User: Fold these one by one.
Assistant:
Number 1:
Amino acid sequence: MTEQVKVPEIRFAGFTDPWEQRKLGELEKDATLYMGRGRVISAKDMSNTPGTFPVYSSSALDNGRMGAYGKYMFNQELITWSIDGGGAVFYRRKHRFSVTNVSGYIAVNPEKINCKFLAYAMSLAHSRIKFDYTVKAHPSVIRSLYTMGIPISLQEQQVIGSFFSRLDDLITLHQRKLELLQNIKKSLLDKMFV
């Protein structure tokens, strides 16, 4: 059941519409989103069918990328996450890719919810729950486990999603600069100290 919730402490100017508290399962029932799991794709499968399409799995490393494949399952914007809970929630821009069976995925109805916004809301919900070998983030589990505040205004969702996406881009840029400086420092240390 949908209920109104208190609006966040910080909002972008011009937005005054209320927010709703929604479970993922409710959003699925009203056709706002569709949840599923990937399929089994082994290293042998990828070796037998080489290609350039990314395969995403449960790892949080390298954006969850496990390898590349000559086939793909999706060519759309999606959210993926690790079923075992040890990984992270990822926003996947529209491109050709596959998702393994140890990952869940969500496709959204873009007329009802912004995919980037939902990915950030899910990421926060995911970070607040401890997953282990007994509690896994299967779609059947998180349908009732993840409850999130969602703006009624699709435009507000888009603004929030874009804002956090830009912050992530900035973080990535600075991480690359940090890695470059660390490599330069290591190289100089190797060459200056004998």
Number 2:
Amino acid sequence: MCLCHNSDLSEELTQETFYQAVKSIDRYNGECKMSVWLCQIAKHSYYKHLERNKKQQRHMLQDDAIHTSPEAELIYSEDKIALNRSD
């Protein structure tokens, strides 16, 4: 909750954290407290979430840029047709 300030996302990331912890419990070597290990997993889960969101936003922006004008729409649809024909 401290990182994302969103209760729904926080809950989702907590579930992901414990899922990842259970999956990789054999790699926990006891050199640090279990809570520190879990916090590291949570932090990495949050960073993965941020990266996925960045990629989705970039993809959505690219799609919006492609579809901004009728000419772009025509070119886009012609490209799709050409790609389907080449298969």
Number 3:
Amino acid sequence: MRKTQWFDFRNFFYKPSLTSSIKPRPFKAHSFVPFSPFAMLDPTILTIGGIVLGIAIIERILERWGVIDLVDQFSKVMRFILPVTFYSALIYFFATFMF
């Protein structure tokens, strides 16, 4: 016949720990990363800059050839494209190299 054995709940689950149960709280450390001009040599930044520079050179060539109507169309497009390209490249630069 089996004998039933009783355990006290507190004594059964209490195990003294050798290590402290208090864990150190993590803290955020911020550091300053100096800006490097070599970060502008990213292929995406160079491609965007090359496209904008190429359009500006084409506009100057067309102006020398006397095709003023086409130059006027380029200038209307560039008024919109240049600020959008500049700010998007700036956001891309800060998003990829600063964080």
Number 4:
Amino acid sequence: MPTEEVAPMMWDYGFGGWWMWLPGLLFGALVIGGIVVLIVLLVRSASGSGGSGQSGHSGGPPAAVGSQPDRARQILEERLARGEITPDEFRSLIATLDEGRGGGRPG
């Protein structure tokens, strides 16, 4: 009696079919996505932006409370220099800042 040899099907190769590869592909995509997110976070923290939404923010500790009006004035001066506000708007906003401090700014 001749013995029959059973050959595996060409699409199977003993690995269970294409659907067995699907979890591996999804996991690989997840790992690659995680690596990309990690690189973006590292680059942001190295550049100091931190995603705070403030241009020019150094990511360092906040300024002392007493220097906040000076920082506000500096921001207004930068906006004026960039042309975002007019000189009249600048003067009006500075006057508002000075009122909030309880007096005029000397000089």
